[in-house]
Amino acid sequence: MTLAVGVWDKRPGFSLHLRKIFRDPQRSRLHAEIEELEAELEALQRYSDMPKTIMELAENYLERAKEAYGRDVEEGWQQAFHVREQLVRCLHDDRLRRVADNLHAELTEAGRLEPWRRVAVQRHLRMLEQVDGQLGGQGRGALTEGQRDAIIEALRLRNQGLANSYWRLAMVRRHQSLLMLIGFPVLVVSLVILANSASGLTADGWQGGAVLWVLSVLLGILGAITSAAQRSTTIPSQRIPEQLGSQLATWSRLPIGAVAGLTVWLFSIATVQEPADLNVANLLLAAFGAGFAERLIVQGSGSHVIQPGREAGPNGLARSGRDRGE
Q1: Lowest mean pLDDT among 2-6, 80-84, 148-152, 313-317
Q2: Residues 172-217: tens digit of each pLDDT
Q3: 134 vs 89, 97, 107, 207, CA distance in Å?
């Protein structure tokens, strides 16, 4: 089966220049990776005795990567990694050893992989060291089937770690999209009310009206959303299941912020003798600041997900993937 390079990306809609401006960098990287995998697969089909089962698996994963390219970048990377793993199975011993050398060097980068994955990859690569003396040495014999499987398994563990990083990034993006979906209407409504009521902020009788407590509630919600948006600029170090749980808590910021703003309004009313003595500007600022209390509730519930010193035990072994939820 001959695969045509480049003809699969035919998405209608934007012009070429608009696509260049608005195109997702991750999607561009995935596009380049798929093109490279496609060319490598075609070369292997022509110039090597690639087993039929491996060829069919690689083609199947490649088609899935292309299908996912237009709708789900993270799934596309997952399928692309599977293609790479199948192609590596067909490499000669020397090239497979270079893959192992690259994996061994990649482990030196701090934070590249989770500690338990680093330990597992090192153990798989150690099978080569036991036979060859050290990675990169000379005069090495043919790889056994067990050694080849160990290198491929090390590559699979590494790819899964990178795929999880893409999933975390996707969850952060979704979280930011939800915050924008919630926050933008609240901001618009707040601005409209403030614009229409600006002339009456200091007027007698306005402080006891319904507009003030509505603004307090809206600004409390806006403060909670602003607080969450500020934290969403970085990828959290939570495990994926706990990170999914924190995404579900996005909608809880609406009532949390509303209650915080309403509480500030009630407290301000209770501390003055007459409504005319109420400082409206200070009340609204306090309502917005009170919305930041959402991080004490939402973030506090997951603050013990990853504890310092729990990544690796006293014997140097990291927790299992099952314990980490990866």
Answers
A1: 313-317
A2: 888 888 888 889 999 999 999 888 877 777 666 666 677 888 999 9
A3: 22, 11, 16, 78
- CA dihedral for 92, 94, 98, 104, sign (positive or negative): positive
Ordered alpha helix ranges (H), 107-209: 115-132, 145-197
% pLDDT > 90, the chain? 13
Kindly give, in sequence order, each residue whose CB lies less than 8 Å from that of residue 3, ignoring residues fewer than 6 positions away. Answer: 38, 41, 42, 59, 62
Bridge partners, 31 (sequence order): none
Residue 324 pLDDT exceeds 50 = no
**Cα angle for residues 87, 88, 93 (degrees, 5° grid):** 135
Distance CA 196, CA 102 (A): 64
Whole-angstrom distance, CA of residue 158 vs CA of residue 125: 12
Residue 143: which of 130, 157, 155, 156 has the closest Cα? Answer: 130
Identify the DSSP state of 12. Answer: -
Task: For 119-143, give one letter per residue: b (16+ CB within 10 A) or e.
Answer: bbbeebbebbeeebeebeeeebeeb
- Distance of alpha carbon 119 from alpha carbon 80, whole angstroms: 24
Alpha carbon distances (Å) from 139 to 49, 63, 94, 134, 263: 26, 40, 11, 11, 76
Q: Which residues contact 64 (CB under 8 A, 6 or more apart)?
A: 75, 79
Residue 166 has pLDDT above 90, yes or no: no
The tokens describing 47, both together, are 């110039």
3-state secondary structure of 107: coil
pLDDT digits (tens, 9 = 90+) for 230-284: 877 776 666 665 666 655 666 777 888 899 998 998 888 888 777 677 788 888 8
pTM metric for this prediction: 0.63
Instruction: Determine the distance from the C-alpha atom of residue 28 to the mean position of all C-alpha atoms in its chain, rounded to a whole number.
Output: 17
* Residue 248: per-residue pLDDT: 61
